[in-house]
Amino acid sequence: MSDSLSLFWKILEIVWINILISGDNAILIALACRGLPEERRRLGVVLGAAAAVALRIAFTLLVVEFLGVPYLRIIGGLFVISIAAKMPLEETGRPEIDSQKTLLAAVVAIVAADALMSLDNVLAIAAAAKGSKRLIVFGLVLSAPLVMFGASFLMSLVERFPVLVWGGAAILGWAGGELIGGDSIWTAHGLDSDVFPEIIGAAGCAFVLLVAGTLSVYKSVQAKKQQDFN
Predict the structure, then answer these.
(1) Is a pLDDT exceeding 50 seen at residue 92?
(2) Which of 61, 212, 223, 225 has CA 20 to 30 A from 140's CA?
(3) Does the pLDDT at position 74 exceed 80?
(4) Which residues contact 74 (CB under 8 A, 6 or more apart)?
């Protein structure tokens, strides 16, 4: 794979993952601003989302700094894989947040709520970017307007084509596996080659699809049993 194609693929990974995981955050922004006067509502959305994205960039870059500590990549990778395995099974939710009457209150509410909801986003994006700070910033900034202004369309698209979620889960599982394979502890065991993270990435992807598929079948069987019982 050429360098330019590899770079494009990494950016696409970050944007796709951020869109899939941030749907609820986008709805949260709209809910926080619904109490503002109509002429200030758009400004509240833009300012709140911009502040939330800036905070998320800062959190993600901070996480990247700590990923050099032994075992932290493994822990983070396992967490990312657990997120990926549950992604195809999660129902579209509507987060609860009170509407705000002033622009400042709306922005503060958005930032506070987004910070509480963003641990999965931060780790997932750090994994997809493979520690590249430029990719993290570029990917988050690029996907921000898509999440802000296209949340309803994107969520309806995902509901209509579930394969998009499964594809995102597979990519996230691969990124989590690569994060595990890139931990510094493997160097002591002679497993620090360029191929090793790719192998663990493929294993992470396969594991996510296997677990998600098994849970999906189990959920369908249980739902059918419940329906027959009723």
Answers:
(1) no
(2) 212
(3) yes
(4) 179, 180, 183, 185
